[in-house]
Amino acid sequence: MYHRLDPRVKLLISILMFATTLLVRTLYELAAVLAFMVMVAAVATVLHRVGRTMAFTALFSGFIFVVNFVFTRNLETSILYAARFVAIVVSTSLFFITTSPDELEQVMKTFRFPRDVIFAFVTAVRFIPVMFLDTIQIMDAQKSRGLELEQGNLLKRVRNMIPILIPLVVNSVVRSGELAEAMESRAYGSVPRPTSLVEYRASAKDTAVAFAAVLLFALTAYSFYFVFPAKIL
Amino acid sequence: MIEFQDVTFVHQNGVKALDGVSLKIDSGETVAIVGENGAGKTTLVKHVTGLLKPASGKVMVDGLDTSSTTTAKLSRKVGVAFQNPDHQLFSESVEEEMSFALRNFGFPAELVEQRVAWGLNLFGLTEYRKSSPLVLSGGEKKRLTLACILAWDPEVVILDEPTVGQDSIQKEKLAGTIRMLTSSGKTVVVVSHDIEFLWPIQPRVVVMKAGRVLGDGPAGKLMLDKGLLDAARVARPHLVEFYESLSNRPETPFVDPLEARRWVEGEGSP
């Protein structure tokens, strides 16, 4: 159901959720916002993927907590900042998980981004899984030559990444060159203003969801500042 | 030397890549693993170096259980040349690229120097010794990856699609290298779609489909089995097809495709 929404509406919902996490001032408010995000993920049937995203951000979140706690000595503030980071990542990933690169392209066209910028951005998004696969294959190849990534002190481990990163970067550069040639050979850029096969028109359902999202955001912001005023951290 | 005992492997996306594979490869054997894309060939060989661990079953390499042995330790015994050489080349020069694994395995500097010189000479890469490996041609990169592996003298050599991007002369040289490795007692496992490349080598052939072993036997027998190869969606060698066309003629001078092969290679006469 959520997947079928107009991608512009999904973008609006993600932006509003993002903005709400920035308005949050207490752990209770943040818990409520996170609960809402989990509910949206459940409706969109992407709970498992959002869960993985949250687990992936745990390390960075832990780092934010430690740094804040060291400098502020305030447990609540440190937890709030760490959890806010998770909420920010979830709000943006909800959009990217439920929106295909094609839809993303259409959304960017709606906002009249330059065509080359759109192409570069969407291609970058499309290539993320390819680069991930490349990374695994490169790691396999280097581990098969006796490279032990998990061995040694921090400096040694960083140096161990060189045999992974260089082939990854070189492959990406080569691939982008090949892609550019392939695109040019298929007449990319020959038409200054190409028409689009798909043109989004918001349905009544999309408009209703967008309106409800804006209303909910306004009510949430109002309640944060006027109904349940809390001290600003 | 290598034993797969009822091995099953399931990818993260739930696809069963290996389904109850049992296989034994003895020391000094030359084995070709053939099958269509997605048959599980590369997944199978990745288990030999412990890059993948079986979901069930056991993979033993020279008495070591790969589930409880590190890839670094297994790699000392098993060298793998992966399909895409660009996935491993990173050093500033060809000689540094070759010495990378030798240093990882703790070879003394003198021996590193000797093995690098030997490998470069064997694969005709001496002139590129100081060049960046990234500027080599596709075929040269492929040869370099093979040289990198042979430099540490592993007991088992695994070649994953070694003929991709190679011209016919390089393929012949590669076949010669495989014969040399076999004659020097190495265990060689070749993963390939290239039946024409494998046919003259006459290895033991393991035919795979959908993660299962469909057939296992000498090339001279299995590559004539149209039913088996059709089921595995593997093409038969042109010579076998040609022989079958000839054999329909009453005056055919050949007894079987192996004799035809020997005749074509100038080893016999009809």
Can you describe this structure in just a few lines?
The complex is a heterodimer of chains A (233) and B (270). By secondary structure, chain A is mainly alpha-helical. Chain A is 76% helix and 0% strand.
Architecture (CATH level 2) name of the domain at 1-72 and 190-235 in chain B: 3-Layer(aba) Sandwich
How would a crystallographer describe the biggest sheet of chain B?
Answer: 6 strands, mixed
**Total helical elements of chain B:** 11
Q: Strand count, sense and closure of the main sheet of chain A?
A: none
Overall domain count of chain A: 2
Secondary structure: number of strands of chain B: 10
Biggest interface between protein chains, with counts per chain?
A: A-B, 19 and 26 residues
Strand order of the largest sheet of chain B: 6-7-8-3-9-10
Mean pLDDT level of chain B: 89
Q: Secondary-structure element sequence of chain A?
A: HHHHHHHHH
Shape of chain A: flat
Structure write-up:
Chain A folds into 2 domains: 1-99 and 201-233, no CATH class; 104-197, no CATH class. The radius of gyration of chain A is 22 Å and the shape is flat. Helix content of chain A is 76%, strand content 0%. The mean pLDDT of chain A is 87. Chain A is mainly alpha-helical. In chain A, helix 2 (27-43) runs parallel beside helix 4 (75-98), helix 3 packs antiparallel against helix 4 (75-98) and helix 6 crosses helix 8 (162-185). Chain B has 270 residues and is α/β, with parallel strands linked by helices. Among the domains of chain B are: 1-72 and 190-235, Rossmann fold; 237-270, no CATH class. Helices cover 38% and strands 22% of the residues of chain B. Chain B has a 6-stranded mixed β-sheet with strand order 6-7-8-3-9-10, with helices on both faces. In chain B, a hairpin with a 2-residue loop joins strand 9 (204-209) and strand 10 (212-218). The longest helix of chain B has 16 residues, at 168-183. The model of chain B has no long low-confidence stretch (mean pLDDT 89). The A-B interface holds A 134, 137-138, 140-148, 162-163, 166-167, 170-171, 174 and B 46, 49, 51, 70-72, 75-76, 78-80, 82, 84, 86-90, 100-101, 104-105, 134, 148-149, 152.
